[in-house]
Q: What sequence folds into this?
């Protein structure tokens, strides 16, 4: 149980009998038994609440993931398909003119 052997338990009982006395020893044992039972009940309730919270979190994550998969995102502009659109040409058309203008301003300064 707690790594205590029979010899240690006998020694503890003898010391308890000498310290408490034979009249109060059964009452002390009942009180300790009730305290241990209450402690176990509280520990079990705590474990159960942790498991319930954990299960609730898991189900919420699964629902969110499922909702994310099924929800369609409305794009303000249709996204470019890299296989069909030539991104380099589109980017270079607008930036080449601006880039040439910037070079002229730098050289004239």
A:
């Amino acid at each position: 149980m707690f790594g205590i052997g029979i010899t240690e338990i006998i020694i503890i009982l003898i010391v308890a009998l000498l310290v408490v006395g034979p009249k109060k020893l059964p009452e002390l044992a009942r009180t300790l038994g009730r305290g241990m039972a209450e402690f176990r009940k509280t520990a079990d309730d705590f474990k159960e609440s942790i498991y319930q919270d954990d299960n609730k979190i898991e189900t919420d994550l699964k629902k969110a993931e499922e909702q994310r998969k099924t929800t369609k995102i409305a794009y303000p502009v249709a996204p470019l398909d890299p296989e069909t659109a030539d991104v380099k040409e589109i980017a270079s058309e607008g930036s080449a003119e601006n880039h040439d203008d910037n070079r002229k301003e730098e050289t004239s300064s």
Observations:
- The chain has three helices and no strands.
- The chain has one domain: 6-108.
- Residues 25-70 form the longest helix (46 residues).
- Residues 6-108 form one domain.
